[in-house]
Amino acid sequence: MNKIKSGIIFLMLLLPLSRIISQESLLINVYNRSVYSLDGEWKFIVDPYENGYYNYRLEAFDTKENPGKGAYFLNAKPENKSELVEYDFDKSETIKVPGDWNSQYEKLFYYEGTIWYKKSFDYNKSNNENRVFLYFEAVNYKAEVYLNGKKIGTHIGGFTPFNFEVTSLLKEKDNFLILKVDNKRIKDGVPTVNTDWWNYGGITRSVKLIETSQNFIRDYRIQLNSKNNKEILGYIQLDGQNINEKKVKLSIPELGIENEIVTDNNGLAQIKFISKKINYWSPGNPYLYTLTLSSDKDKITDQIGFRTITTQGQNILLNGESVYLRGICIHEENPIRGGRANSLEDAKLLLTWAKELNCNFVRLAHYPHNEHMARLADKMGIMVWEEIPVYWTISWENQETYNNAENQLTEVISRDKNRASVIIWSMANETPTSEPRTAFLTNLAKKARKLDPSRLISAALEQNNFEGNPAIQTLDDPFAEVVDVLSFNQYIGWYNGLPAKCGEITWKITQDKPVLISEFGAGAKYGFHGDSLTRWTEEYQEYLYTETLKMINNISQLRGFTPWILVDFRSPRRHLPGIQDGWNRKGLISDKGEKKKAFFILKEFYDKKAAQKK
Ligand code: GCB
User: Does residue 363 line the site of ligand 1, with CB under 6 A?
Assistant: First the structure.
């Protein structure tokens, strides 16, 4: 690409996000708010041709003048049915929310397209003055939302929360909420059409109504200053009318803190105070303080741990001390129940397995997982890498694609910025280098630092031959200059030669930064045995782990790694009959929860690492 063109693209990426996917600012900490759950059975209509959305000339029923018309017809009473006589929610089947549709109905296993959802409900506010927000923890991939026949908004991106205020639309009786959910993969989407995971569609996480007072605490960040571990920094943001010069109080009884601060003209109050007796959060001491924030009208509590995470040269420092990340990658799936993981029980299952390996770190691949994961990791003392689905090839030069990625990044940071466990925001996975891609990722990294200056930035990069020599590997990627932690995936012994090849490779990393290996692994079917050179056997996978651990242990900058992957996961790319059958078999645990031999190799390595520290 010539310099002028790439310069224009770069400038484009710096432009204000004028056409960003529109929606309201997020309410955070919904787990501690007053909520009414809309989970349960919903009616649904499968609509592959999107008849409920477009007329026979493929013009959308929704128009600017009449938003919600499409959904109105879907819900029309029999006597009003005009164009769309074929639709009838009342006679339709039901489906569970939260839940992906693929694992609930066999006929929907491979389905990618539109499904209409409907929930009817009554709702009584506890106080007439109160406001109500409709909150979705996640819908994959595109959600068009209609309440009582009126369109209230659209959200794009399958793994992050969003909300709409519905105060004026909500009635005491007979509300009907309709969603058009479309999980068609699209080239300019984030992710794009090509991934190595199942494209589970639907309202995959919980739906809630959140009731607040007129003026309420919408958002806050309360974290240690990463440069001064005695200083607590952050802000509290009010929402509503007359929110300027309001007193807000932050209390942390165990620290003897009872601070009153005053909001500015925008309802924003800055937090900054010193505490000398903080009990720092760490995997060995996952201590969480109970905080209460209160304004004249609102009160909310949270459980927050205080720790610093920084880098110095080639070290990652947790509370100022060098830490080695004993990690594992995880997809958001509960293989035993089938489908997307979304509950606290699912999070317990996955993180307990990680603990059994003696992990102190997990990489939540390749998209933001549900909020239970980070909250439970806080309690269990597991550090977390969170990631957005900027995966493989993305339309780097498309401004809309960038806006979409930035929006997903903003939503996950907004949701999890108070979780002590989260130490790394990852911008991408295995993205081929080019100027537009590096500009795209650099802008994402800038945004992440602006939203959250207290955490580390990384991305799972790819390695290269050093000066053309395949026996020496290096990291030749301009984005390596931007990140705080250098991470890369490598599959020596699986996609690249046999496990013995690990003995022939050395690493020459020129950047003075800590290194994580964000993936390595081999496929193995649980219970399939043979010699260590027979692919798909547990013995091959075990041998690969043994050889890889020897190889990477020689990288002097290595500060941890996250093998691929904790559990076998569904992937439509994995066809091999009798072995894969639609599953990526690189799990250390099978789809039935059985531990493969390599699990114990990694556990032994981690047990030793953990013991060395003491
Ligand atoms: C990778 C990808 C991961 C795949 C894995 C594999 O490099 O990052 O998403 O699932 O390899 O199994 O090939």
Answer: no
Whole-number pLDDT of residue 2: 39
> With pLDDT > 90 as the criterion, what percentage of the chain qualifies?
88
Rounded CA separation 292/299 (Å): 7
Please list, in sequence order, all residues whose beta carbon lies within 8 angstroms of the beta carbon of residue 35, skipping any fewer than 6 positions away.
135, 208, 209, 210, 211
Q: 165 CB under 6 A from ligand 1?
A: no
387 lines ligand 1 (CB under 6 A): no
State which fold the 310-613 domain adopts. Answer: TIM Barrel (3.20.20)
Q: What is the CATH number of domain 216-306?
A: 2.60.40.10
What pLDDT is recorded for position 66? 76
Of the pLDDT bands very low, low, confident and very high (cuts 50, 70, 90), residue 568 is very high
What residue spans in the chain does CATH classification 3.20.20.80 cover?
Answer: 310-613
Rounded CA-CA distance 146/153 in Å is 7
Contacts of 493 (CB under 8 A, 6+ apart): 499, 500, 501, 502, 520, 522, 544, 547, 548
Closest-lying ligand 1 atom to the alpha carbon of residue 571: 10
Residue limits of CATH 2.60.40.10 in the chain: 216-306
302 CB within 6 A, ligand 1? no
pLDDT the model gives residue 21:
40
What single letter denotes the amino acid at residue 422? Answer: V
How do residues 318-340 score in pLDDT, each as one tens digit? 999 999 999 999 999 999 999 99
Q: Which residues contact 175 (CB under 8 A, 6 or more apart)?
A: 120, 121, 122, 123, 147, 148
Does the structure show a pLDDT above 50 at 490?
yes
Are 420 and 390 contacting, i.e. CB atoms less than 8 angstroms apart? no
Question: 430 CB less than 6 Å from ligand 1?
Answer: yes
Provide the phi-psi class of 114: left if phi over 0, else alpha when psi is between -120 and 50, else beta.
beta
How many A from CA of 196 to the centre of ligand 1? 6
CA distance 516 to 561: 5
What's the CA-to-centroid distance between 610 and ligand 1, angstroms?
27
Q: What is the CATH number of domain 2-212?
A: 2.60.120.260
**Distance separating alpha carbons of residues 21 and 11, to the nearest angstrom:** 20
Question: Pick from 334, 337, 389: which is nearest to 365 by CA?
Answer: 389
Rounded distance, CA 581 to CA 9, Å?
A: 42
Residues of the chain with CATH 2.60.120.260: 2-212
Measured CA to CA in angstroms, residue 437 lies from 6, 190, 427, 432, 610 at distances of 10, 14, 11, 8, 38
CA of 186 to the centre of ligand 1 (A): 20
Which of 151, 145, 141 has the alpha carbon at shortest distance from 62?
151
Give CA separation, 340 vs 139, 158, 162, 262, in Å: 12, 12, 19, 43
Query: Which tens digits make up the pLDDT trace of 397-437?
Result: 999 999 999 999 999 999 999 999 999 999 999 999 999 99
